[in-house]
Amino acid sequence: MIKNVSPRVRVLEFIVGNKKQVAEGTTEMVLDTNGNSFAFKPGQYVRITLPQLSPDMSKGNTRDFTIVAAAEDEINGLTRAIRVAFRDSDSAFKKALLSYPPGTKVYVQGPLGVFTLPLDSQQPLVFVAGGMGITPFLTMLRFVEEHGLKHSIQLLYTFSDIGQAAYLTELKTMAEKLPNVTLVEKKNRVDTEFISKNVQFGPGTRWMLCGPPEMVTGTSSLLLNTLKVLETNISFEEYVGYGKSAGEYRVLAPTMAKFEGTQNILSEDLIKPILDAVGQSALVAITDVQGSILYVNEKFIEVSKYSFEELMGQNHRILKSGFHPPEFYQELWQTISSGKIWRGEIKNKDKEGAYYWVDTSISPIYDKNGKISKYIAIRFLITDKKILEEKAKNYTQDLELRVKERTVELEEEKQKLLLEKNKISTIVESIGDGVFVVDSDYKIIVFNKEASRLTQFTTQEVMGQVYTSIMRFMSEKDGATQDNFVRQAMEKGITGSMAKDTVLIRKDGSKLSVADSVAPLKNESGQVIGSVVVFRDSTKEREIDRMKTEFLSVAAHQLKTPLGSMRWNLEALVEDGEDLDPEMKETIQDISASNIRIIDLVNDLLNVSRIDQGRVANEPKPTSVNQVIDESLGELGHAIKQKQLKLVYQKDQQFPSIILDPKHLREVIQNLLSNAIKYNRPQGTVWIENKVVGGGMEIKISDTGIGIPKQDLTKLFSKFYRASNASQSQTDGSGLGLFVVKKYIEDWGGV
Amino acid sequence: MDTNQYILIAEDDKFYSRFYNRRLKKLGFEVVLVGNGKEALEQARKRKPSLVLMDLIMPVKDGFDTLKEFKADSDLKNIPVIVLSNLGQDRDIELVMKLGAEEHIVKSDVPMLEVVKKIKTYLK
Hints:
heterodimer; A: about 750 residues; alpha+beta; six-stranded antiparallel sheet; about 35% helix; B: about 120 residues; alpha/beta; five-stranded parallel sheet; 5 strands
């Protein structure tokens, strides 16, 4: 009787056709569809009921058979016939079926089951078939071949007796022909090792098992254990084709199972691509809490040179290089077992004994209950980097050595320089005058002890400061700042000195008379890089100077009295001596003349000393230069006439009045004019010219006189100087005149 | 010269004194010589001179003070005073003129004849 059939499933009459042997004790029987429309998917089965039920059919007259499809069974898209394959056995059912001649009607229900070739050809498939469980897969494969499908299929075919392996030859041929189909034969059972060695699988691989119950159950639990490491949520379909119990094969109701791997962590959209990418360049390994390797990626295998199965289940210890002390690993385990990520560099040893370095980070993985269940280690090969580091270290050491050597050399040089510097320092310090040096920014860079003593500032106080902010130099006369001397030396690059009346304001505010010399400091290329100032307390000097001048003044003054009375007495003699001996007359006249000369000299001395001391009264008022010149000409006119000199006076009528002391101007003009007259040749010429030039005025007095020898020019304006040729010209002159002239002109700001 | 006229000369230098004595007397002037300012004032008060020749640097009382007193004294102030000194500094000359002297002459710088000329002028 037909039982266990869904009422919706049709019952069709098929006609028994031919049969043939496909393997030892294995028969394939054709069943004609008898005009029924029958369409099935590869892997589905039919339920066949025999027309008669005999009492020795212990399990009834209905059996399930996988439909074995053959190409020739389809004509024009219509299924003309189906095939079933089964092992010959002593069962009454089978015997009866086998005995039916072609043409016998049998009752067929189907197609039944959903054990079919999945539509998605992206999903790799692994068929595990045992015994007659091959039949659905055979149909699938034939279907793949016939329709040129792209399914990636690995067929794991187990059998106890190769002679009984149905369709093996055909399968082999198919596997050879089709690139996406692989056939793996296995006598008897499969185990984890066999699977991991011979089957490429990963998450997303669909497993389909078909075969005797113990094979299916056994394999499914095997797979469950293997795939469990990957946190697989497994749902499976198993098609149990034939069951053997009590020596009889019986068809069991199929319970569909399908294996599919879905992995918690690794199949999430983001994590998988990340790990895939990471896996390209990183070694990835997953271990359990004891450190046994559960998974390694290809890179790991590549670097460690161990195979997948050599690593699986092994403790990570096999990679130990012996480089790290036990404490290293202890610390590592402590870190990760407390839930923290460990990061570090580890030296490992590969299968061939070669060493490699990896930059490692290990993180714990938690299970659903929050306990650490696994560790994932991601490692980057840094052997090259380590080699470079080593090289760099060596270079560094070498460099350090060389630097040390060089440092010693430099130290020695430095010592030498220090000694030199000390020498110079000592010299500078021992100089009895104050010395300070400024750089191009006028900042003090050297300041000796004497300078400190004179200024009352310590070296620390002044170092690095601009000198004018510390030392104030000013004029004794009017308190005006007078610190240009350094700038002059720096800018003009020539030596110089302070103005004569310079005083320095010391730290306590007291004034100190100072005199100095300034010199520019030049580098090798002649550039001015600073200035050296050597200065001293000139109080005594000035005092002496003053005393000298004072003495001079007093002396000159004292001289005037006797000279004065001499003069008058001599003049009286001259006047009274008209009747004297001509010789005597001349004598007295000469004495008188000499006396006048002395008086002149004394007056000059007095004048000079007054000017030197700055005691000359200066009463500036608007003065007409032309008028002064005229007056001077008036006074000297007589002398001009005497020498018969020609006077050329280019008077600028518009010559403006200058504000100065007219007495001084008169002195200057008279001095210059009288020189022009004195040193002129008889019948020579005197030119006077005045004009406005630039921002000032020019007064020119020239003559056709004896001139001034060039070498004397610089000394011309010093006291008492008379040019070398002056005495030859039978003229007299004290030599003080031009000194006075220069002083006045300088005071007016001229040259 | 008027018999009542005389020149009072205050001069402490021996040589100048002697010169004045010789020369001025020779020229017909009556001359009284004193050695310092104090004596000059006493003499002037005793007998009024017609002209005073005053030196500046003198002991006891110098020319400045004497001149001041002369010009402060109602009896004496109208007597012309010629300061004959060797102090040539402008400020000295200024002071002298301010104090009322009629003339200031720097002895050593001026010929004798000019001094005589000046004296004659003031005695007219």
